[in-house]
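Hey, quick one: can you model this chain's 3D structure?
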Amino acid sequence: MKTWTDMQSLQPTVSKMLTNSIKKDRVSHAYLFQGSRGTGKLEMSLLFAKSFFCSYRDGIEPCHNCKDCNRIESGNHPDVHVIQPEGQSIKKEQILHLQKEFTYTGLESNQKVYIVEDADKMTANASNRLLKFLEEPSRQTIAMLLTENGQSLLDTIRSRCQILAFQPLNPENITKKLMDEGLPESTARLMSALTNNLQDAIDMSNDEWFAKARKLVVQLMEVLQDKPSEALLFINNQWMSHFKDRDMLDQGLDLLMLWFKDIVYEHIGNEDSIVYIKERERIQTSSYHWSKQKATNALTYILEAKRKLFANVHPTLVMEQLTLQIQR
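Sure thing. Here's the predicted structure for all 328 residues.
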């Protein structure tokens, strides 16, 4: 359950704009919430809906305990409709069903809210149907379109929405929240460097596959430093058997990138930014092996490897080339 105080700490600009619109009774009929995954778009939209429906609101803050608030929280409010992709897309039939629902009088009021998650995944037909819906706004209807890629929406849809940009979350805030959830600082710092999504971070921290991935990064660095002639053997026998597909390997490269960033931080004396704090001695050892320039070069090589990975270069070849580049 998110409050406006919570959201103001996560998305201060967006929160201020929305709360001001509530205070001044100038709520728009359509909003476009755009920002990367995990930045609070859905939580903000549900909180906004609560403020719209709650009869016991204290200023801008809904009570979070009344029938309306509880049903919105559980996804069971009859006048709040959330549309999500069916499979890979949001289809025309889903928008038609929404339009049909909105022809009925509200079950408990004439207020209605609809939230479209992953709005950029609407088919062309669905987008056109939604556009017609937006062109005939009701005074008591609010639309909230949520997307990671607002530019992919029709310009005509964008022009009918108030666009609110959700900023990436501050890693320090994420680290603190993860520690509040019981994660040790070393794990919390690593998770916050990998994802903006708190639930994803918690899930990863409990994932045995991810724990093994972290160990393999440490082992790879030790092999590169102490037994460079065995590096390619390690890649083929141990690394690739764990990072079995492109998404897994991409995550492995992210972990490797963080290690080389830590080497750079060690060189410039920015200890507070080091992510692998539990491996501080190993980071120091790595900094003796890789100069700041070589560590920076390694970061460039890893970014290029990530690009090749999704350009359909064979994953094993990507890792072998990267290993040889880092060893130069």
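One thing worth noting: The two ends are 51 Å apart (CA to CA).
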